[in-house]
Amino acid sequence: MNELWTYLEANWTQIRGWTLTTLWLAAVPVMAGLVLALPCGWLAHRYRWAHGPFVSAMSIVYTVPSLVMFLVLPELLGTKILDPVNVVAALTLYTFALLVRTVADGLASVPAHTLATAAAMGHTARQQLLSVQLPLAVPVIGAGVRVAAVSNASLVSVASVVGTSQLGQLFIAGNNVGSLAPIILGLVFFVTIALAFDLIIVIITRLLTPWHKAVAS
Amino acid sequence: MKLAADNGLPGLGRVVIWFNDPGNWWGSTGLLAHVREHLVYTFVVVCTAALIAVPVGLVIGHTGRGTTLIAGTSNALRAVPALGLLIFLIVVLSPRIHIRQGLGSTIPAGSVPYLIPALLVLVILAIPPILTSTYAGVQSLEPAAREAAAGTGMTPLQVILKVEMPCSLPLIMSGLRSATLQVIATLTVAAYAPLVGGLGRLIVDGHQNLRDLRYGYPAMVAGGVSVAVLALAVDALLNLAQRLLTSPGIALSGTRQRTNPMNSQNPVQNAG
């Protein structure tokens, strides 16, 4: 315990910098991926032709190992190998791949009679989607976002093998000198970040679905 | 890929040339040997994880005890980065393992001290999806089926083995599929441990000599493409196995696929 504290104090400036980088490397792709997945997931749900390219093709993207993705993207984007943009782009792609299916499934999970009721009350197609179908799909979409956020946080650590400067460097440092302190610190930081993201998303999901609380009480 | 000329990578065109060279396919360090190692490791890891997770999941699902604890632990385990856990176990365990012998070409001499931590990480990561889907499968059964089985005089063990297990098989299999895909992907990170084989070897070694045309970047991307192909092929096989193993009576109730919680609530997590 003492050893951990000493290491943390001695390297605090660097660890603080790495923590901030890790936070945005993990958070930005979740938001970007979700923003892209909402319209595309709707297309995949609404139109049969869009289901194949978005849902099936994207499940292939998900099988590409991240280490390879981090180094194929520089070729496709014309970026430098160590550019953090590669990590953001790779994780955005993974998040999108996961969420496009979740959004389509979430929209499909809304019962047909609920939509028929909304139509009967005079909702236009757009109002049905935005004020009935989408809010009701929030729990399913939220569950998907939780998985994406937690898995992103741990994927960021893999980028340290490529050399991107973030908390994963603690693992590499520990391995190079055979010392446990940086490794344990790294694990603690990554798990804390992942669980914090998870908690934030759970809270947002609850806020967006107030009727769940009403039913429960 | 002209636009990327300044990043120092040999270019994606080289990957096609790499695949076209038979010398890269055969032999003890060829692509096919790595595919074989990858499959052997995956099989060993998933079987070990299933031997632990399925019985525990069945008991938890049957008794309904400990679900909160298990769900919480599974979620927390998801948050543990595979690379960090691997390096932790290598630093802790490897110096204490003194087995130097190898076994055939899959386990080269001296690799055991690294192989054990690597496979252990994968087993730890593969248990949560199997465990969660097993107890979810048992719990999603209609209580009437369980009560009817008990009513005919079955012992609790018989209820578990003859009713609950076959009925929750589709979900157990879907957990096994998630776990298998995750193991196939994470094995690429496991190759960060020295002497551990599999397609990750091509990827990690390729990354270390990026500019080498034979063992560098082209081998790395080829390894990545092979992992993706392998994952899709294995998933298709398991899908087939799932259909063959599922009792026809259960397969008939077509709503099962749609309500399968593994599909959207609990998708495969990419850890590699």
Could you characterize what this model shows?
- Chain A has a single domain (2-209), classed as MetI-like (MetI-like fold), CATH 1.10.3720.
- Chain A is built from ten helices and no strands.
- Chain A has helices at 2-10, 12-46, 48-61, 66-77, 84-108, 112-120, 125-162, 169-177, 180-208, 210-216.
- The radius of gyration of chain A is 20 Å and the shape is elongated.
- By secondary structure, chain B is mainly α.
- Chain B has a single domain (7-264), classed as MetI-like (MetI-like fold, Orthogonal Bundle).
- Chain B has 13 helices and no strands.
- Chain B has helices at 13-19, 31-63, 67-78, 82-93, 112-139, 143-151, 156-167, 169-190, 199-208, 217-245, 248-252, 255-259, 261-264.
- In chain B, α2 packs across α8, α4 (82-93) packs across α5 and α8 (169-190) runs antiparallel to α10 (217-245).
- Classes of the chains: A mainly alpha (217), B mainly alpha (272).
- Chains A and B meet through α4, α5, α7, α8 and α9 of A and α3, α4, α8, α9 and α10 of B.
Q: What is the fold's blueprint, element by element?
A:
The complex is a heterodimer of chains A (217) and B (272).
Chain A: H1 2-10, H2 12-46, H3 48-61, H4 66-77, H5 84-108, H6 112-120, H7 125-162, H8 169-177, H9 180-208, H10 210-216
Helix pairs in contact in A: 1-9, 2-3, 2-5, 2-7, 3-5, 4-5, 4-7, 5-7, 6-7, 7-9, 8-9
Chain B: H1 13-19, H2 31-63, H3 67-78, H4 82-93, H5 112-139, H6 143-151, H7 156-167, H8 169-190, H9 199-208, H10 217-245, H11 248-252, H12 255-259, H13 261-264
